[in-house]
Amino acid sequence: MPPAELFGGVEDDTRAAIMQATYDALCEHGYANLTIQRIADEFPKSKSLLYHHYDGKDDLLLDFLDFLLTRLEEQAPPGECTGDADTLEAILERIVPPAPPNDRLEFLRAITELRAQATHDPAYREHFTRSDAFFRNRFRQLLERAVDDGAVADIDTAATATVLVTVTNGSMLEAVTTEGYDPGIHREALESVLEAHLLPGSDGAPTDANR
Amino acid sequence: MPPAELFGGVEDDTRAAIMQATYDALCEHGYANLTIQRIADEFPKSKSLLYHHYDGKDDLLLDFLDFLLTRLEEQAPPGECTGDADTLEAILERIVPPAPPNDRLEFLRAITELRAQATHDPAYREHFTRSDAFFRNRFRQLLERAVDDGAVADIDTAATATVLVTVTNGSMLEAVTTEGYDPGIHREALESVLEAHLLPGSDGAPTDANR
């Protein structure tokens, strides 16, 4: 079962069911072994609907990626970021999740395979360009809020957000393509590097941190 | 043509020719469309040799990856790292190359596709585990030398090397899976984040930098 936040509250039942079937089939079979038929096998409604709607598995998968990203874009308005003493912790939590559960790992594996399609398929490349830009923007908004609140030093938020997205992409890739990947070690390492940069006063221009 | 440093000086001519044919076919066709036949098409010697040696395209590709990594392991002994004022620059050059030429991009695309195989194939996973460990170790040796020379602050070199490998993996992934990837912007961003951490005195414990 996919995490509830991915498919909950979608008004169009059929669309939600197609997206959920795609998620399930993708986690089960991975990209290479996925077929429209295998997605249809997970789909409780009329199979012909799937064939009617989509021009093949990539067409469906691109719609699936768009669905997920659009929901992320809609769900977390930047106004709701709260800067507090735990901001660095909260940012790290997003970049290197403490210990992804197994079903989340399966999904990350599939997303990594989809991203690899972007090396030769412009439609996937367009999606991941948009997706990276979205996360860069989100990190930046989060950092700006934290700088305003004095929880983070007065840094170059755009540059830092760019690096953070790159670290996120690299961590995700390592988590699903290497043995013995330890998120704890990676997180501590990142914390040690970022603390010098992010904590108030670390940029050589101390801010009013303890108000 | 592959970069000269990849295949030059290999004593076994046949092996070098197989590796070069694999490189050429991989850059031309990518992983998904690669077949042993297409590698054989690039191979000037007896085709049956290829079929005799290898159990399929993945067997050959894994040998190819091992060949490249083994050469890297042999070629750059850590004793040759030189710490000087340009160390930060030299490290950045390795992580985010200024502007990869087109043939290098083709190779990076193919490597990214191979790495995606590691999501479901343990043999590829083993390779990329070894490869990440190699680069972590190399970065660490480079940083240790730079710390000893006073060119870099007295940092946690293991933690920093871990983050640098993650940034390298993330940068490579973004370079070949997004549109308009600008290594200049990414490099400046990384420089801005790392400077706070790497430059002498930036960790709040100034070292004897100018000896």
What descriptive keywords fit this protein?
homodimer, 211 residues, mainly alpha, disordered C terminus
Task: Give an account of the 3D structure.
Two copies of one chain form a homodimer. The model of chain A is unreliable at 203-211 (pLDDT under 50). Chain A is mainly α and 211 residues long. Chain A starts with a helix and ends in a 13-residue tail after the last helix. In chain A, 67% of the residues lie in helices and 0% in strands. Chains A and B meet through helix 7, helix 8, helix 9 and helix 10 of A and helix 7, helix 8, helix 9 and helix 10 of B.
Q: How many strand elements of chain A?
A: 0
The helix content of chain A, as a percent range, equals: 55-70%
The rounded Rg of chain A comes to: 19 Å
Would you identify the regions of chain A where 5 or more consecutive residues have pLDDT less than 50? 203-211
How would you classify the helix and strand content of chain A by structural class?
Answer: mainly alpha
Give the N-to-C terminal Cα separation of chain A.
45 Å
Biggest β-sheet of chain A, characterized?
none
Oligomeric grouping of the chains: homodimer
Shape of chain A: elongated
Order of secondary-structure elements of chain A = HHHHHHHHHH
Strand percentage of chain A lies at under 5%
Mean pLDDT of chain A: 82
- Kindly report the greatest chain-chain contact and the residue count on each side: A-B, 50 and 50 residues
Task: Count every helix of chain A, treating DSSP H or I runs of 4 or more residues as helices.
Answer: 10
